[in-house]
Design goal:
6-stranded mixed sheet; 342 residues; Rossmann fold; alpha/beta; two-stranded parallel ribbon
């Protein structure tokens, strides 16, 4: 039996062009129909909803045709638009991170219910944690799940050497997200949100941070989401933290999460060895590191004419990767000599 309140929510979502709320309410109605044992109608409704969803996804490309802000001096685009093509099975979280992301989705799926009481879903999010732990992937995942394009801020173009240009770029970037529904993603946001107490700053840093704070304060879009990511959260100005509706940590994977991700990567591959020992050899590695190590180990085995992979193969690749990272972080002799001369 279809409930009257669900029909009201469906029509309201359509009138307000809230696509995600419309789809969520439509799925609820289909469940109501199934509960009434009308399987034929439920199937017809589901097919109609699937066709509608496919058309909406295929129309994402039109967003690239909308006018995007550019640097007026050299014409560089300040935002790149693409489809968020990361799905649920490609994402791995810690349990605490997963709870927060699930809550964000729940609020957006139930935004009409919140609006009835004067509340709105979270729209300004800060992701922080070490590199390779899923911050960028999650931004794309949120865009995919909410049917929005992913607009990544091109910081190389946004940050200008000309006085006042960077602050102007920030304002125009936010203005675009106000007018065009998207997930606006600032990767490495610490580059424009550093603490304003730098004694060497001549005033430009303060101007940039103040512009960012002002833009976030005035951002009122109900259809766009702003996500900022930082690998160096300790550099962020304290006032920046308070501008976000939610702060989500992306820690290094635990043993359980590492094992789960390993099984995903090794799915369909003949593996010889104990997963627990493999996990131990990957201690301290990020999700991105684990993926790189396992894929390199599989490719090495294939190039050697074998089809099975062993614990030793992954351990050897892990040791090689760690050695390469260690060598890359070591100060060069030239740098050491320069420091000595100083």
């Amino acid at each position: 039996m279809i409930r009257n309140e669900h029909l009201v929510q469906l029509f309201r979502a359509h009138a307000q062009q809230e696509e995600q709320a419309f789809s969520s309410t439509a799925e609820t109605i289909i469940k109501d129909v199934l509960a009434g044992n009308d399987h034929t109608l439920a199937k017809q409704l589901q097919q109609a909803l699937d066709i509608s969803s496919q058309r909406k996804r295929s129309s994402l490309g039109k967003h690239t045709l909308l006018p995007l802000p550019t640097d007026r001096r050299n014409g560089e685009t300040l935002i790149s638009i693409q489809e968020g093509n990361v799905s649920q099975d490609q994402i791995f979280f810690s349990s605490s991170t997963e709870r927060q992301i699930s809550r964000i989705f729940e609020e957006h799926h139930q935004k009409l219910k919140l609006a009835e009481y004067g509340y709105y879903p979270k729209s300004k999010l800060l992701f922080w944690g070490p590199p390779g732990c899923g911050k960028s992937y999650t931004a794309a995942f949120i865009a995919h799940e909410l049917g929005l394009p992913l607009g990544t801020v091109q910081l190389s173009a946004a940050i200008s050497s000309f006085l006042g240009d960077t602050a102007s770029h920030i304002q125009r970037i936010f203005e675009t997200a106000e007018k065009t529904p998207m997930v606006l993603f600032f990767d490495e946001v610490d580059s424009i949100a550093k603490q304003r107490d730098d004694p060497n700053d001549v005033g430009e840093l303060k101007r940039i941070v103040n512009s960012l704070l002002q833009a976030m304060d005035t951002f009122r879009s109900t259809k766009s989401i702003v996500i900022a990511a930082s690998n160096h959260q300790y550099l962020l100005d304290p006032a920046v933290w308070r501008r976000f509706d939610d702060i989500v940590q992306f820690p290094l994977p635990s043993k359980t999460e590492c094992e789960k991700y390993l099984r995903y990567l090794l799915n369909g591959v003949k593996f010889h060895g104990a997963i627990a020992n493999t996990v131990k050899s990957l201690s301290g590695a990020s999700f991105a590191d684990i993926k790189k190590i396992v894929i390199e180990a599989i490719k090495t085995v294939l190039l050697q004419g074998q089809t099975d992979i062993s614990l030793q193969d992954i351990v050897a690749q892990a040791q090689l990767t760690k050695k390469m990272l260690y060598e890359a972080k070591k100060p060069s002799p030239n740098n050491q000599q320069h420091k000595t001369l100083q």
